[in-house]
């Protein structure tokens, strides 16, 4: 697939989400940050859907809350000040296996403390949990960055997960600049339709 402009990687990831989401779906934003991806998911699932958004920084949860409030989307989003590694504990049992999309935009909060970054071990755990909880036809999307300290190691973890899924016969795509050092790329893994 053709490379995408770095400033458009997040938009591309959002498009990959919205082309799968249906009204009434449950979705997860594993890294709420400024709330842009959460708002995109919330719009796509509609008033009868629900989004769980995670971040470990109060600043990010506040930013996301404020964006959703302005957009009139707060009613369909649960904000969790906790790690995405705790995804399974947060979903209700009725939501297990029902996610339309899980999206992760790794790295650090734009404009925030660049030393607070997503970590390989929790990312690895969260990606696997999120994929397990997708519904048939659901999609996992992960934007990985290699330009900050710790980024290449985390990108390798994402890549290992991708290779395992591909070896298991799943449809896996690497969109964007993979494998260009310093550039972001997007992993897309689709759960087979029933
Ligand atoms: C690149 S930003 C996300 C951008 C966001 N999706 C948006 O639309 O603005 C990465 C975020 O991941 C958060 N983060 C780091 N470790 C985390 C973890 N274990 N669980 C959830 N969020 C985490 C950071 O606090 C940061 O806000």
Report on the architecture of this protein.
- This protein is of the alpha/beta class and 194 residues long.
- The protein has one domain (6-190): Rossmann fold.
- Helices cover 35% and strands 22% of the residues.
- The protein is built from six helices and seven strands.
- It has helices at 9-18, 36-45, 58-71, 87-90, 120-132, 151-167; strands at 26-29, 50-54, 77-80, 99-105, 134-144, 171-176, 185-190.
- It has a seven-stranded mixed sheet, with helices on both faces.
- Helix 1 packs parallel to helix 2 and helix 5 runs parallel beside helix 6 (151-167).
- The protein is globular.
- The two termini are 26 Å apart.
- The mean pLDDT is 94.
- The structure holds S-adenosylmethionine (SAM).
- S-adenosylmethionine (SAM) is lined by residues 30-37, 54-57, 60, 83-85, 105, 107-109, 116, 118, 122.
- Residues 30-37, 54-57, 60, 83-85, 105, 107-109, 116, 118, 122 line the site of S-adenosylmethionine.
């Amino acid at each position: 697939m053709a490379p995408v402009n770095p400033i458009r990687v997040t938009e591309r990831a959002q498009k990959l989400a919205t082309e799968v989401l249906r009204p009434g779906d449950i979705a997860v934003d594993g890294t709420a940050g400024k709330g842009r991806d959460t708002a995109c998911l919330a719009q796509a699932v509609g008033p009868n859907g629900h989004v769980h958004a995670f971040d470990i920084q109060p600043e990010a949860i506040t930013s996301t809350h404020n964006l959703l409030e302005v957009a009139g989307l707060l009613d369909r989003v649960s904000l969790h000040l906790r790690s995405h590694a705790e995804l399974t504990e947060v979903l209700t049992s009725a939501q297990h296996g029902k996610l339309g999309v899980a999206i992760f935009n790794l790295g650090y909060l734009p404009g925030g403390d660049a030393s607070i970054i997503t970590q390989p071990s929790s990312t690895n755990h969260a990606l696997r949990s999120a994929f397990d909880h997708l519904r048939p036809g659901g999609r996992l999307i992960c934007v990985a960055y290699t330009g900050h300290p710790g980024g290449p190691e985390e990108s390798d973890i994402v890549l290992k997960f991708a290779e395992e899924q591909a070896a298991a016969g799943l449809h896996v795509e690497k969109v964007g600049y993979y494998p260009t050092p310093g550039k972001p790329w997007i992993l897309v893994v689709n759960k087979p339709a029933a």
